[in-house]
Amino acid sequence: MTTETTAIPVTRGNESDRRSPRHRTFKGAHICFRGLNLAIDCVVRDYSDTGARLQVESLIGIPDRFDLVRDNFPMRVCRVIWRRAPEIGVEFLG
Question: What is this structure's pTM?
């Protein structure tokens, strides 16, 4: 699933507390498990240079660390920093 949208800055909470501005999006991606040939589909709802908000069908089975793969973007190693069904917030590592 690849839907192109124009990035629009998201202003939630105190934007000055963020390390980098968020941009709203609606792009398909995959949560990939390291060492396994397994992936969970998700939708990237907003992103920044340091993290993203992902929409998933279920929080069950999503590990604390995983690889996020999107078409035409480099793979990102992620750490989950919050979970509120049906979304998770991730921090990009490295």
Answer: 0.77
13 Ramachandran zone, left/alpha/beta (phi>0; psi -120 to 50): left
Q: Is 12 helix (H, G, I), strand (E, B) or coil?
A: coil
What is the distance between the alpha carbons of residues 6 and 26, in angstroms, rounded to a whole number? 9
Q: pLDDT tens digits, residue range 38-91?
A: 999 999 999 999 999 999 999 999 999 999 999 888 999 999 999 999 999 999
CA distances, 72 to each of 4, 28, 86 (Å): 12, 11, 25
d(CA 17, CA 24): 18
28 in any annotated domain: yes
Residue 15 falls inside a structural domain: no
Number of domains in the chain: 1
Q: How far apart are CA 27 and CA 5, in angstroms?
A: 8
Determine, yes or no, domain membership for 8.
Answer: no
